[in-house]
């Protein structure tokens, strides 16, 4: 009998693996609905849905290996990263989905109102300093860098939580992109920033595959702004849900690299 592996678990959702089957348990049925709908619309490889029995979604494992993990060097080749960039470009060029996206912790998931997001960021920065989580100069510097993300942009079909562990490749080809619960209309540069968070040295390979032509204004300063913005917003949440944003190469190191 296959063992049950806990992939991730916190108070909002949990993902278990049993053999080649992933069981996603989510208290918010809207996230599961959004995930299944998105996987049926996107022009990129996704996991196969096996069955649904709320609050559980069962999906098949995708072949290949993830591009890497946050806090560790990526073992994937430059060609694999370029292939990932080409797949993300295909997603961003797809027709806009009917849903605006899930309003989760990921700041770019729903293409959120810039004013509301800026207000949330300011409040979070104040808490990071007053509670002693991060030094004031580190927070202030990254808040200035993050400002570049607040600019006019054209919505695209975005994944919304495109972490490095969510893109799988094999033989330098993308075999699957997983975890679509935050998918919707959003800022395409947020996807590129999330995928390269903590792996700045891979941004060039990703951009090579993504390309510079088309409707997306590929501003690298905005991608760097999203690195700061996303990290500032999630540090306290991660620490409170069993994750370690202070681990080498993770969110706090991303903030320190902007200094």
TrEMBL record:
Alphabetically ordered keywords of this record: Transferase
Ranges of Low complexity composition bias in the record: 101-114
InterPro entries for this protein: AGP_Transferase (IPR051678), Aminoglycoside_PTrfase (IPR002575), Kinase-like_dom_sf (IPR011009)
Region Disordered, annotated ranges: 94-114
Iron recorded as keyword: no
PANTHER family registered for this protein in UniProt: AMINOGLYCOSIDE PHOSPHOTRANSFERASE DOMAIN-CONTAINING PROTEIN-RELATED, AMINOGLYCOSIDE PHOSPHOTRANSFERASE-RELATED-RELATED
Name of this protein: Phosphotransferase
Source organism per UniProt: Streptomyces liangshanensis
């Amino acid at each position: 009998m296959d063992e049950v592996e806990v992939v991730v678990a916190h108070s909002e959702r949990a993902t278990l693996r049993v053999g080649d089957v992933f069981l996603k348990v989510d208290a918010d049925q809207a996230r599961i609905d959004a995930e299944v709908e998105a996987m049926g619309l996107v022009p990129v490889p996704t996991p196969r849905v096996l069955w649904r029995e709320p609050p559980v979604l069962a999906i098949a494992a995708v072949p290949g290996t993830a591009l890497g993990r946050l806090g560790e060097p990526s073992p994937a080749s430059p060609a694999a990263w370029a292939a990932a960039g080409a797949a993300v470009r295909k997603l961003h060029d797809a027709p806009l989905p009917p849903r605006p996206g899930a309003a989760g912790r990921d700041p770019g998931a729903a293409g959120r109102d810039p004013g509301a997001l800026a207000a949330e960021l300011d409040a979070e920065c104040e808490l990071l300093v007053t509670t002693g989580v991060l030094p004031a100069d580190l927070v202030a510097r990254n808040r200035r860098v993050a400002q570049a993300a607040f600019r006019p942009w054209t919505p695209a079909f975005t994944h919304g939580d495109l972490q490095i562990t969510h893109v799988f490749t094999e033989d330098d080809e993308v075999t699957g992109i997983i975890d679509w619960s935050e998918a919707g209309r959003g800022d395409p540069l947020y996807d590129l920033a999330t995928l390269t968070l903590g792996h700045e040295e891979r941004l060039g390979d990703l951009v090579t595959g993504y390309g510079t032509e088309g409707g997306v204004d590929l501003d690298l300063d905005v991608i760097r702004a999203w690195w700061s913005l996303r990290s500032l917003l999630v540090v306290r949440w991660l620490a409170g849900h069993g994750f370690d944003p202070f681990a080498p190469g993770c969110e706090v190191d991303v903030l320190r690299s902007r200094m």
